[in-house]
Write a structure and sequence with these properties.
Elements: H1 4-32, H2 37-47, H3 54-61, H4 78-84, H5 86-94, H6 109-117, H7 125-149, H8 155-175, H9 181-190, E1 201-209, E2 215-222, E3 230-238, H10 243-260, E4 265-270, H11 273-281, H12 287-299, E5 305-310, H13 313-326, E6 333-337
Parallel strand pairs: 1-4, 4-5
Antiparallel strand pairs: 1-2, 2-3, 3-6
Helix pairs in contact: 1-6, 4-5, 5-8, 7-8, 10-12
Pfam family, one: zf-RVT
Domain Reverse transcriptase zinc-binding: 22-92
InterPro entries: RVT-Znf (IPR026960)
Length: 338
Amino acid sequence: MASKETKQKTNQNDSTTSWEHQSKKIWKQLWSLKIKHKQKIFLWKCLNNALPVRDIIYGRIKAGDPICMRCGEERETIEHTFLNCVDAKITWKLAPIQWEGILEQHGCFRRWWTSITEARHRPQGWQHIALSVHILWQIWKGRNGAEFNGKKYRPWTAIQKALKEWSELGEVDRLETRMSTTETEALHLQHPQLCSQHGVLQFSIGITRDKHEPWVGIGICLIGGAQGTHTGWAMRETSSGSFLLDEALALKLAMCKVAEMQHRVVQFQVQNQQLLNLIQSKQARDIRLATVVEDIIQLRLLFHMCSFCLVQNDNYHLSSKLSTYALGITFDEELLFP
């Protein structure tokens, strides 16, 4: 009789072909979710078996213990971490949403997530899917707290934190001023490059670090707006403490932002030649930087064509101006400016 581990690997292999056919639809749904960018990247890693759980680390470098530290019973795979570990099972039982009828999908995270996304057809389906991501995120944070800091994982606390973050983001979304369909159509008419399917769209990226607080402002500018105008995005994030790493994180966030807009042929202009060299060589020595560079390389797959280059002085002035402005905001902003 095949072991549970063997069956799990068989399920994962069987799902590869079907996943390749479904991936475009899954990505489109993922990037449209009303969740934080870092949570989209996190879920993207789960779906690509790229999250650094023990079994994956052991499989790559043959170091460490592949067994789950929390239960000590099975290998810590993506599926085990979020669905099958005793702590995960308790967490989902306490959740206000119950995904009944898909227990047979727990052997493959991709199949489980694909089943979850079917909820988009029911009332409040997208909200329930977003809440599920928040729960997954808190399971992961709780796992890391136990793994690296010896903190006891508490399922009920994980649910409370997930609900709090989910409701806060929902409130922000309701308070934000949204464009009407007419306004959106008018914007596309004024800025045809926003919906171009064949031209290369260029985005310059600038960052500014706060001198007194641990913040970094990120400015993303779409180059060459109609009638001399430009579209830009301003975001404020916590600084990593490394300027090069901050630049890499800014590029990753920009790629996520542009992917949400479903542009296909893009070029990202960054400040630092060293970052471009790292993307090309894939040989970053710092583990944090290497992880972000790997994310950037994988995110390229979301576009039909994606290239990188150094930002030109004029374009840098615009994105730098936005990044300075971003240090004073609380929520991401989209702006039109001359």
